[in-house]
Specification:
The complex is a heterodimer of chains A (331) and B (514). Chain A has 331 residues and is mainly alpha-helical. Chain A has 14 helices and two strands. Chain A has a single domain, classed as ABC transporter involved in vitamin B12 uptake, BtuC (Orthogonal Bundle). In chain A, strand 1 and strand 2 form a beta hairpin. With 514 residues, chain B is an alpha/beta fold. Chain B contains 17 helices and 22 strands. A six-stranded mixed sheet of chain B has the order 6-9-10-3-11-12, sandwiched between helices. A six-stranded mixed sheet of chain B has the order 18-19-20-15-21-22, with helices on both faces. Chain B has a four-stranded antiparallel sheet with strand order 2-1-4-5, covered by helices on one side. Classes of the chains: A mainly alpha (331), B alpha/beta (514). The complex binds adenosine-5'-triphosphate and magnesium ion (MG). The site of adenosine-5'-triphosphate (ATP) has 21 residues of chain B, from strand 2, helix 1 and helix 14.
């Protein structure tokens, strides 16, 4: 028995809390619903998690530099609304060229969302506004704009091809959003682990003064982190719009919490400087898994929000426990 | 000291491991009341680990501790404090957002009717600071204190409650000479009140001044406990396991062209006023002065870290006064800061990433956009071996290395790219004798073999006396003297520490081994 406990402790120290949470979640939901542990459902989980995965990866960059981005939800919303509106307008003007209007919509929506990230970056890196205030402020600005543009109602009128390709399409049996996410995972993994720029994110969060003395452009790094975070959230917004077939101002409201939760569960330090991309992907998948499991187990949606909050706090507590274990363990 | 009295603190067979690595291996240690017991050993010998166990910050894996004759099991630093065991650690634990007095009473706030009793705390804080002779305002904000002042707050914290054991881990590393003298008389005072003091230092002169007994640790093992009058060479032999007879290498200077020229440098905060300096390649130029004399600020402002109000700074013939640290670094000027934790290292990243950080875009480490991770590893391994990093695993987090080994990581950083001028700011703070010799030899090689220009900023007088070719002395923000090779002498330097020419007492001026 004590051997088992020792082994578990060791695993906790080595691997972090995520594998344990995953195991527990899988066990519980398999018990609660027969449909949970089926190949079909698991693919479903992966597909549903793509949006959160994208946002969480962006959020990770902000966290790595020692900040965070509370405006990711609004970026989704604004991207969706602007993208859908311009796509619909372009399509109305030239009904024959669906592809061109899709392109127009993607560019307009992506630009709108990324702009919020860029403004965040300027405020935080150049004007020294705290990430909390800056992104909270921009969250309000973006959400207000999204509501103003739509009057609070969904935007219709996009070409059906948009949803067919980016929402429901498949390449070799893999859903298009999943493929896009995988490509982005690879790109970001490469940036973080194989380029000087990737190291800079860790360095700025690790010790910004040391980074500066080592000749790193800390302002540019901070700026890029938030711009990139905005870009990722914008891509998620475009894909989600395709899936929903409408532009909506109220998507993404839970994204700030969920993306930070995914990162923290994955061991990204809230103080900056620590975190691995592959773990963040699993963190996002885990949250998707829990949501899917709760749906199957017919847990009420309001209660689900409660569970996500509890999970976030639990993950932080468990991580503290882990750190204490690291300090006390002999081996 | 009566032999019949039972010791105040007695450790037997204390062992502590960090993931398989024995930082302490069955160490014995006794502390009597009313003695200053010095812990002596190389960087990484386990001194800080030992005192962390005594102060309740760490738990031993095995071994016994007896305090006043009773077995002792500490649950926390707080618990230890309650029993009168207080430590001032190498790394401070102050909350920058709080004031001095709030930090003093952190975790032990005085209350009345369940509310904070601010008046009482203020009065007691004032009293403690006055008793210790520290020139600090209790309501000053900690964030703006210098390192020396933060150190004072830490010490004052230890004196808040009744003391049985006072532990000081390299307390003078950042104190001025006056503050050091004050600290020593304070130590004498508490000693007379039967407090037992454990004192960690790498400085011989301090051992001589206040030590009663010395326990030597090497590689986590107990070597011996000896009287303080043991000869220096004997102590060093026990500490390193080998004989070191020459700390300072002889350096042949062949000054060539002028690399750095600073004219009339003043900082906006007036920490430097009208300073002019010139450094040539192939020579080591020293800046001597007390803590707070502005010597470090000269370097910092010339590296673009503190705003200047006026200056003409030319580096290799180019005006660099307006450039950012990155641009200056690219031109070949490297500044190695004094404060490792604050500005030197990313403590939660491994040594490898720390070492190559300044060189990520250089051809050896990356092809501009993509890292060559293999080459990086090889390069770092070489540097780690060259500096004899202990433990020799560069994948370990920088924060897990002992103070002296962290210093080695910092020095390794400046070896990753081409540099024409090195500015070393207190390069040997908290570094043991063996490593110190290695660092001095490293600096010599830079100067002799690579023909680099070196600006050495140091509060350690022997360092200045033995290593430099020319010396600038600073006092109160002014350069008070410039000494040519044949003029460099202790009295000459001391005479210029204060602008009015008053000579400070030689209390903490360290003496070299020879
Ligand atoms: N948390 C940790 N994990 C792994 N190794 C550690 C950890 N803390 C300390 N060590 C190692 O234990 C050894 C003893 O460290 P310690 O800090 O006690 O040395 P020290 O004698 O105080 O040295 P210095 O004079 O440099 O301060 C070092 O080799 C250090 O790298
Ligand atoms: Mg130490």
């Amino acid at each position: 028995m004590s051997k088992i406990i020792h082994f578990l402790k060791l695993a906790l120290v080595r691997l972090g809390v995520l594998p344990f949470l995953l195991l527990i979640a899988v066990a519980i939901f398999t018990f609660l619903s027969d449909n949970f542990l089926t190949g079909r459902n698991l693919i479903n989980v992966v597909r549903q998690s793509t949006y959160l995965t994208l946002v969480s990866m962006g959020q990770m960059f902000a966290l790595l530099t020692g900040g965070f981005d509370l405006s990711v939800g609004t970026i989704l919303a604004l991207t969706s609304v602007v993208g859908a509106t311009s796509m619909a307008m372009a399509y109305a003007a030239m009904p024959d060229s669906a592809m061109l209007s899709i392109l127009v919509g993607i560019l307009a929506g992506g630009a709108a969302g990324t702009t919020i990230g860029i403004v965040n970056g300027i405020g935080i890196s150049l004007l020294n506004v705290s990430p909390f205030m800056m992104s909270l402020g921009m969250a309000s600005v973006g959400f207000g704009l999204a509501l103003y543009l739509t009057g609070g109602t969904p935007v219709y009128g996009m070409p059906t091809e948009y949803g067919d390709i980016f929402g429901f399409g498949a390449i070799y049996g893999l859903p298009v959003p999943v493929v896009i996410t995988m490509v982005l995972i690879i790109i970001l993994y490469f940036i973080l682990n194989w380029t000087p720029a990737g190291r800079y994110f860790y360095a700025v969060g690790g010790n910004i003064k040391a980074a500066r003395l080592s000749g790193i452009n800390t302002r540019l790094t901070l700026f890029s982190a938030y711009a990139l975070c905005g870009l990722m959230a914008a891509i998620a917004g475009l894909l989600l719009t395709a899936r929903l077939d409408t532009g909506e101002a109220n998507i993404g409201a839970t994204m700030p919490l969920e993306s930070i939760a995914a990162c923290v569960i994955a061991g990204v330090s809230l103080r900056g400087g620590i975190g691995r991309l592959e773990n963040v992907v699993f963190g996002a998948l885990f949250i998707g898994l829990v949501q899917n499991g709760m749906n199957l187990a017919r847990i009420e949606s309001y209660l689900q929000i409660v569970v996500i909050g509890v999970l976030l706090i639990l993950a932080v507590v468990a991580d503290q426990l882990r750190l204490r274990l690291v300090a006390t363990m002999r081996n | 000291m009566g032999m019949n009295r039972s010791p105040l603190l007695e450790l037997t067979g204390v062992t502590r491991e960090y993931s398989g690595y024995r930082a302490l291996d069955s160490v014995d240690f006794t502390l009597n009341s009313g003695e200053v017991h010095v812990l002596f050993g190389e960087n990484g010998a386990g001194k800080s680990t030992l005192i962390s166990i005594i102060a309740g910050a760490l738990k031993a894996n095995s071994g016994q501790i007896r305090f006043k004759g009773q077995p002792l099991r500490l649950s926390s630093v707080h618990h230890a404090r309650k029993l009168g065991i207080s430590a001032v650690f190498q790394e401070f634990s102050l909350v920058p957002e709080l004031t001095v007095e709030e930090n003093l009473f952190l975790g032990a706030e005085e209350t009345r009717y369940g509310c904070l009793n601010r008046t009482a705390m203020h009065a007691r804080a004032t009293e403690v600071l006055a008793r210790l002779g520290f020139q600090l305002r209790p309501d000053a904000s900690t964030a703006f204190l210098s390192r020396a002042e933060q150190q004072m707050v830490e010490i004052a914290k230890a004196f808040r409650d009744d003391l049985s054991i006072l532990i000081l881990d390299e307390p003078t590393a950042s104190l001025t000479e006056r503050e050091t003298r004050d600290l020593f008389s304070l130590v004498d005072h508490v000693k007379s009140q039967h407090v037992g003091i454990i004192y960690i230092t790498h400085r011989m002169s301090e051992i001589r001044q206040i030590g009663d007994r010395i326990t030597i640790l090497r590689d986590g093992k107990f070597i011996d406990t000896v009287k303080a009058d043991t000869s220096e060479s004997e102590l060093v032999r026990m500490m390193t396991g080998k004989v070191i007879d020459q700390i300072f290498p002889a350096i042949r200077f062949k000054p060539k062209k002028e690399v750095l020229k600073i004219r009339d440098l003043s900082t906006t905060d007036k920490s430097v006023i009208g300073a002019s300096i010139s450094v040539r390649s192939g020579e080591i130029v020293g800046i001597a002065g007390l803590v707070g004399s502005g010597k470090s600020e000269i370097a910092r402002s010339c590296f673009g870290l503190i705003p200047k109000s006026a200056a003409e700074i030319t580096f290799n013939g180019e005006e660099i006064g307006h450039l950012s640290p990155r641009e200056i670094l690219d031109r070949g000027l490297f500044y190695i800061p004094a404060d490792r934790r604050e500005e030197g290292l990313m403590m939660m990243r491994n040594a490898r990433e720390n070492i190559v950080l300044p060189a990520l875009t250089t051809p050896g480490i990356s092809s501009g956009m993509v890292l060559k991770r293999k080459a990086e590893k090889v390069r770092v391994k070489k540097l780690a071996d060259r500096f004899n990093l202990q433990p020799s695993n560069p994948e370990l987090d920088a924060g897990l290395f002992s103070g002296g080994n962290q210093q080695k990581i910092m020095l390794a950083k400046c070896q990753t790219r081409k540099v024409d001028l090195f500015i070393f700011d207190e390069p040997t703070v908290g570094v043991d004798v063996g490593t110190r010799t290695a660092i001095y030899e490293f600096i010599r090689d830079l100067c002799e073999m690579s023909g680099a220009a070196i600006l050495l900023i140091s509060s350690d007088l022997p360092e200045i006396l033995h290593l430099t070719h020319r010396v600038y002395v600073m006092g109160g923000g002014y350069i008070t003297a410039e000494l040519e090779p044949d003029e460099i002498a202790e009295e000459k330097i001391l005479k210029h520490f204060f602008r009015d020419g008053s000579v400070p007492q030689k209390a903490s001026i360290e003496h070299d081994l020879n």
